[in-house]
Amino acid sequence: MFRLIDETGAVVGDAAALPAPDVLLDGYRALVLARRLNEQAGALVRQGRLAVYPSSRGQEACQVTAAAVLAETDWLFPTYRDVAAIAARGVDPVDVLVMLRGDWHCGYDPIATRVAPQATPLATQLPHAVGVGQAARLKGEDTVVMALCGDGATSEGGFHEALNFAAVFAAPVVFLVQNNKYAISVPLARQTAAESLAAKGAGYGVPGVQVDGNDLAALTVVLTEAVARARRGDGPTLVEADTYRIEPHTNADDPSRYRSEDEVERWRPRDPLLRLRAHLTATGVLTPELEAEFAAAAEEMAAHVRAGTGADAALDSAELFAHVYATPTPQLREQAALLAAELDGVRS
């Protein structure tokens, strides 16, 4: 497993391979914002402002690095747990949370942001990601696609189809598997008998790389190279990021039914934020002034999220029938008219 910085913040790999200090500092700022976003979203669930929230606490290094290594022309294909990655890509977090509020399926413009809608079903976004990458390759566009998924998705047919197609046609896609050890309650050992998820790359003829998913420095190196490889036309890379889901699957989950608190406690010291903070503080890159500046930015973001999700959504029943067909069918028009008439009767 590729690693550059250990849990104490000490360099354990090739020091010459470390990203530049300013890159690591930007990464740390992104981690602070991502952690605060996870905390704020969790609070909004408890207040009834969000219907559900799948926290990525403990996985934030994967989230922010996946966004950081992409160019403006690239695409990000996220899952339901990748709120922090989408926000790090530059999408307003209020818009990202729209789906989890139970409002529109997607609160942002995928074309304008080059971020696909969040996918809740496992692996369904992976063939779509490959399709976008292959289309860009055929059109001669300078586009790389970052496709995110979890370890549970690697058991799905969509994962196989996406990897196989991308490998055969050298589609410019980076598959980042955030191996957080559980597909809801199913442990990794019940998902695969392979030595690692990265080892699955050999079966498709693509490089498989295993990286410490809580080491932002190592992730930056691995994902930067994978993106560069795809951009050169050398095809996809399968990256397995070894990480851990600290919090429940969602607020509706009881993790005590399938894992012990001792296991969780063993992972807490490996926290990506604490690890990078220790390294940057020891090297003198992170000062108290910068720490305060980043904390203030995180609180400003959290206040913005509270204000944006605190307001009641403006509901329009006609939206039930919008975007079902480009040209509404007679049946759809009839249903819309019936609902409108019924609501008029209620109002009167």
Please state the second-level CATH architecture of the largest domain: 3-Layer(aba) Sandwich
**Largest sheet: number of strands, sense, barrel closure:** 5 strands, parallel
Using only CA atoms, what is the Rg? Answer: 21 Å
Strand content: 5-15%
Report the average pLDDT across residues.
96
Any idea what the shape is?
globular
* CATH class group of the largest domain: Alpha Beta
CATH superfamily of the largest domain: Thiamin diphosphate (ThDP)-binding fold, Pyr/PP domains
Taking pLDDT < 50 over at least 5 consecutive residues as the criterion, the unreliable ranges are none
Computed structural class: alpha/beta
Read across the widest sheet, the strand sequence of neighbours is: 1-2-3-7-6
The total of helices stands at 13
Order of helices and strands: HHEHHHHEHEEEHEHEHHHH
Tags for this model:
348 residues; Rossmann fold; 2 domains; five-stranded parallel beta sheet; 13 helices; 7 strands; 45% helix; globular
